[in-house]
Amino acid sequence: MEKFDLKVPFLYVEKRADAYLTEALAGRFSREEVKRAIEEGSVLLNGKPAKPGVKVKEGDRFEGEVSSSRPAAPAGEAISLKILYEDADLLVIDKPCGMVVHPGAGNRSGTLVNALLGRGGNLSGLGGEERPGIVHRLDKDTSGIILVAKTNRAHRRLQSQFESRSLSKTYVALVSGRVDFDEGHLEGSIGRHPKLRHKMAVSTRDDAKEALTRYRVTRRLAGATLLEVDLHSGRTHQIRVHMAHLGHPVVGDKIYGPSPAAAAAAGRLGLHAAKIVFEHPETGKTLAFESPLPDDFAALIRRYETPDAKKR
Known about the structure:
Elements: E1 2-7, H1 17-24, H2 31-39, E2 43-45, E3 48-49, E4 61-66, E5 82-86, E6 90-95, H3 112-119, E7 143-149, H4 152-164, E8 168-176, E9 183-187, E10 190-192, E11 200-202, E12 212-220, E13 224-231, H5 238-246, H6 260-266, E14 271-279, E15 286-290, H7 295-302
Parallel strand pairs: 7-14
Antiparallel strand pairs: 1-4, 2-3, 2-4, 5-6, 6-7, 8-13, 8-14, 9-12, 10-11, 12-13, 14-15
């Protein structure tokens, strides 16, 4: 158990309390450790229990204690990566389905971080020892494009684009059933499920975060619909939660789908981060990258194809 006492400088004004503390305590505690301390009431903001979503002001005082359960630092491993782009500031990687992004409980090896460390070279340190270079996440079973920062300045600037939503991410999703409208949007704040802590849910709780998902039907198949999905926020499991809430869970979803058996039969999650558009953190040049559907995703789609499947 380690105590801390911090005052918020002007630089962090209007940042969420949990985000500020995670960044301010980076290198000492992990994001999960900070999050757990807030949830347990071990963190005070101006003398009162801190709420994770409250916006901080210059001069706000945080004090409390965090229990560190820090495991050994992740080790580099010789794992091949598909790199779409690399320069002195960042990497654009095409992550395979089944690869965990960073080490955690039950996944200490074989992660993207282990692979990055195995390559050598610089990685930003803002994510802490467990998450060097990691600017954003993809779920283990989601394939596709992920950005990695090599410098702290690139990390901050890319993170700022995520927070301001000036960066564009497009996914391909195969969802169960027939989605009737050709396009639509889903608005519903997302927070932790009240009973099942491994799940997220559309929620009206104070700590739920606003989320907006837009979709377009690209093909209607036999018992499934292929969508192009744009995220206008980046919440945990956002597409999976919103589509399940709509009544069309992502095919192969072990958490939000109809049954574990159905998910196992699919063989993989029908979700792929297909495109990203962002500004280079140093040059300001607009960069765009695309990842074609992996072979196993294309095979999953073919299972739902029939001669009379309606196509747009």
